[in-house]
Write a structure and sequence with these properties.
The chain is of the alpha+beta class. It has 8 helices and 7 strands, in the order βαααββααβαβαβαβ. It has a 7-stranded mixed β-sheet, sandwiched between helices. This is aralkylamine N-acetyltransferase.
């Protein structure tokens, strides 16, 4: 059995691009219920935009195997302002734009910035853990490290939010004291396109957040 101490966490940097893009392609998108349901196959454009954006904000983290230096998990985060709006046309792939629309709709319904009484928040965008490294609480550790990073005075950020797209990710956020603000049931949102998302573990998206 692999020891948890075999994995360490550090800040994401530019040289990690290829490993993180590969992790998203091989572990995140194939296992993510929505992307699997609508059969997303083209991920390079989205990965390129997201990774480069998160590197520049300097608050994303990777977990790596201390013996091989291979990245086995990533938490991609952005610092987002109240007046920032994500445009669906940022990527050309229609399926990824559809997912963006779902996330935008759940965010707009609650108005998370007002809920957390903040003008700027940490947005925990994507957490991906390689199959070989699951069972070591890496997702929760990456969330904790992200909060620890932006809670420093230099960032002047006092809250975070995320869209947990299944119960497994929701439980990771609960461990870090996130509260559920709202939820969106996939089949209610689109009964045709998301018809297969009926398993109670994967049937809804949760908007979660917390102050710190």
């Amino acid at each position: 059995m692999t020891s948890t101490s075999k994995f360490a966490i550090r800040l994401l940097h530019e040289d990690d691009y290829d490993q993180v893009a590969s992790l998203l392609k091989t572990s995140f998108f194939p296992d993510e219920p929505i992307s699997r349901c609508i059969q997303i196959t083209e991920t390079s454009e989205f990965s390129n935009i997201l990774i480069n954006s998160c590197v520049s904000d300097k608050c994303s983290f990777v977990a790596y195997d201390t013996e091989t230096n291979q990245i086995v998990a990533v938490c991609l985060n952005e610092i987002t302002s109240k007046d920032h709006h994500v445009e669906n046309n940022m990527v050309s792939d229609e399926k990824i734009r559809f997912i963006f629309q779902i996330l935008n709709d759940v965010d707009r319904k609650v108005k998370v910035f007002e809920r957390l009484n903040a003008n700027t928040l940490l947005h925990i965008y994507i957490i991906a853990v390689d199959k070989i490294a699951r069972g070591h609480d890496l997702a929760s550790r990456l969330i904790s490290k992200s909060i620890e990073c932006v809670a420093q005075e230099e960032f002047n950020i006092h809250g975070a939010y995320a869209e947990a797209t299944n119960v497994y990710s929701l439980n990771c956020f609960k461990k870090q004291k996130f509260n559920i603000f709202d939820e969106l049931i996939y089949t209610d949102y689109d009964s045709k396109r998301l018809v297969d998302l009926t398993d109670p573990m994967y049937d809804r998206c949760y908007l979660v957040g917390r102050n710190f």
